[in-house]
UniProtKB/TrEMBL annotation:
Residues 108-184 form the Transcriptional repressor PaaX-like central Cas2-like domain. Residues 20-89 form the Transcriptional repressor PaaX-like N-terminal domain. It comes from Verticiella sediminum. One of its GO terms (biological process) is DNA-templated transcription. This is PaaX family transcriptional regulator. Residues 195-275 form the Transcriptional repressor PaaX-like C-terminal domain. InterPro entries: PaaX-like_central, PaaX-like_N, PaaX_C, PaaX_trns_reg, WH-like_DNA-bd_sf.
Length: 283
């Protein structure tokens, strides 16, 4: 059966490349600002963007758009502008952390319950449809057949409701809880149709190759740390975080993430020291 248009697939580009400027901003905020709810000067953010090769114009656009979205707010002291996370920004990063945790630690006691969505968005609303596809894929939904989305995490009903509300699609959506039965398509085939796990597995292999601990790369610990954390942060857009019962034997996700998390921990002291130096320069 032909695969329907995917919302998000494993990126064909190298995972060692930084994501969009906005994605990198979330990495900086989540890694260095969120844990202690600190302020960060614009200059420090621009320096951090520069160390992963993001131009100042793109960096400033990401900052301004994030402020317009209500994730961060400006704090002015004379001519100096600093930024802090808003409540919405804190909630956004917390949701991302929970979603990454589901990828890192696959559910071992899945009850067989599926969260189902049937929604049809006409061609005239193509932009809205693409936004829906991206949001559903990030939330762990797969698309086995046109109009139907499935997710093995039944506790994401509230997340789904928020997506539909934000996109004003509640009146077009049919939402159910369901259990797979031994009639029709087998469960393994259903998973194959809904998610391209071969592409996801290949992404993990490439991620591991790019971030082999000790591999020589220029730019210092802060650059390496930002690139690594950003790649980990983007995993929910690639990996649906399926329960162990639905994953193929020898799934590479968990061991690769575990190794990269150890590398992240090893990089962290020096990277955070370099970050504090940036803050000092911007003060």
């Amino acid at each position: 059966m032909p695969r329907t248009e995917p919302a998000v697939t494993a990126s064909a580009s190298s995972p060692v490349n930084a994501g969009s400027a906005r994605s990198v901003l979330l990495t900086l905020l989540g890694e260095f600002v969120y844990p202690e709810s600190t302020l960060v000067a614009t200059g420090a953010l621009l320096e951090a963007f520069a160390c992963v090769d993001i131009a100042e114009r793109s960096a400033r656009q990401a900052i301004n758009r994030s402020a317009a979205s209500g994730w961060i707010e400006a704090v002015r002291e004379g001519r100096r502008v600093s930024w802090r996370l808003t409540d919405s920004g804190h909630a956004l990063i917390a949701r991302g952390s929970r979603r990454l945790r589901a990828v890192r630690e696959p559910m071992t006691d899945w009850d067989g319950q599926w969260l189902l969505l049937h929604v049809s968005v006409p061609d005239a609303q193509r932009v809205q449809r693409q936004r829906l596809y991206r949001a559903l894929s990030w939330a762990g939904f797969g698309n086995p057949t046109p109009g139907l989305w499935i997710c093995p995490h039944s506790d994401r009903e509230a997340d789904l409701g928020q997506i539909l509300t934000d996109l004003e699609l509640v009146s077009q959506a049919l939402v159910f809880m369901a259990r797979h039965v031994e009639v029709g398509v087998e469960r393994a085939d259903l998973v194959h149709r809904a998610w391209d796990l071969s592409a996801v597995g290949a992404h993990y292999e490439e991620l591991h190759e790019q971030f082999i601990p000790g591999r020589s790369r220029s730019g210092g610990a802060l650059r390496e740390h930002i690139l690594l954390v950003n790649a980990l942060q983007r995993l929910p857009s690639v990996d649906p975080g399926l329960p162990l019962a639905l994953l193929p034997e020898g799934w590479p996700g968990r061991p690769v993430i575990a190794e990269l998390e150890r590398y992240r921990a090893a990089l962290a002291p020096k990277a955070h020291a370099e970050w504090r130096a940036l803050l000092g320069k911007a003060a």
